[in-house]
Amino acid sequence: MTERNKYLKRLQICDFTLEEVGLYLDTHPKDKTALEFYEKYLEIQKKTKKEYISKFGPIQTTDYDGSDYWKWVDSPWPWERQKEE
Amino acid sequence: MWVYEKKLQYPVNIKNPNPALAKVIITQFGGPDGELGAATRYLSQRYTAPYKEVKGILTDIGTEELAHMEMVSAIVYQLTRNISIDDIKKSGFADYYVDHTTGLYPLSASGDAFSASALQSKGDVIADLTEDLAAEQKARVTYDNILRLADDPDVRDPIKFLREREIVHFQRFGEALRISQDNLDSKNFYAFNPSFDKPKKQK
């Protein structure tokens, strides 16, 4: 697995966890265990996302890093099959 | 993937309901030149787009069209709030009401349900971008027609914003088309490459 795929997988795990628990919280907004779980994973997700962006470029246009080049269209598009290196 | 933001791209705050006007404006939700069709068109075309700038512009404009669909839906929703059966009868809204109550359903002003027949995804960058340029102009004309039919400034304001966006998108698609043509094979060039199966690699 490439370095990029490794970090991407980690971020996908975090994001999916937040998605799943978020749906649960939509209908159980007072569940303390779920709220604490969400908070914990949100912290991990933020850190993971920041790391990914600094290494491999933006995930959203607003992840712009202040450099003198707009990297948004350059990094691979998610529907292209990623080469294993 | 996508993430929802709990805000409109531009505010919609309509004081006075007007079901007759809602029936006209709903065409920019589910009509032939509407925002649902626009989003579907660009977000379908982007997969086979050969150049990174074109993939980017189709993704980003396609995403913005989803936000426009939400704005048009908000306008229609606010125009049909708290209306009486009397309002419904008098305004010509009864035929919509009987099928959908005041639920948002994607159809055209003439009552045809949303159809992907009004859009194309051709797998050819010149064909697709030329279609997209036309689509932005058709949507712009529709917004112009809505502005001729609508007096309420609360409605006109967000419609004017949406009309402006069609013009900006037309400009960006024009640039995407120019970038694509710059990448065509100059030995086989006639605005498009007559014999290309696979687009030339990016310069």
What is the averaged pLDDT score of chain B?
A: 95
Distance separating the two termini of chain B: 29 Å
Distinct helical segment count of chain A: 2
Order of helices and strands of chain B: HHHHHHHH
Alpha-carbon Rg of chain A, integer: 15 Å
Helix content of chain A: 55-70%
Oligomeric state, counting identical vs distinct chains: heterodimer
Largest sheet of chain B: none
The percent range for strand residues of chain B is: under 5%
Sheet/helix structural class of chain B: mainly alpha
N-to-C CA distance of chain A: 7 Å
Give a short account of the largest sheet of chain A. none
Number of helical segments with 4 or more residues of chain B: 8
What would you say this structure looks like, in words?
The complex is a heterodimer of chains A (85) and B (203). With 85 residues, chain A is mainly alpha-helical. Chain A has a domain at 1-56. Chain A has 2 helices and no strands. In chain A, helix 1 runs antiparallel to helix 2. In chain B, helix 3 (35-45) packs antiparallel against helix 4 (52-79), helix 3 packs antiparallel against helix 7 and helix 7 runs antiparallel to helix 8 (153-182). Chain B contains 8 helices and no strands. Chain B is elongated, with a radius of gyration of 19 Å. Chain B is mainly alpha-helical and 203 residues long. The chains are: A mainly alpha (85), B mainly alpha (203).
